[in-house]
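Incident review: delayed structure delivery

Summary: a single-chain prediction request sat in the queue longer than the usual turnaround. Root cause was a stuck worker, restarted by the on-call engineer. No data loss occurred. The affected request and its eventual output are reproduced below so the record is complete for anyone auditing the incident later.

Affected input:
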Amino acid sequence: MNKVENNLDDTISRVQALLSLEAGWNGYDALSPDPDAISHAEKWIAGLYLEVANRDHAWIEPNVIADAEGNVVFEWWHGNKKLTVYIGSESAEYVQVWGMDIYSEMAEGDVESSSMQQKLWQWLVS
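Output delivered after worker restart:
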């Protein structure tokens, strides 16, 4: 197993570890991570990894966290670019940031399709 695959294993392990968070884990009123969102996140990140590997791009290990609504959140930084993906039980939405101006240096949308995954990864690593 190469280092990239180990990074994916580490990422999947961190996603699964979110199951241990209980309601109020953030000290306030955060929901427990949704088991369906965790399952979807595992499938989504594995699909992204395959897209990256099939194009011989370098894999960047994401930060893995939960949000207060019970979603799984992946975050990547590369230079001045930041990509955040929110995975719910039936959705995957992204926010990409490359500056401070929310009107001209940020974008958001759906990232379920492999073509959108490819496009966002290419943007992140370019």
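Verification: The chain has one domain: 3-125.
Action items: add queue-age alerting; document worker restart procedure.
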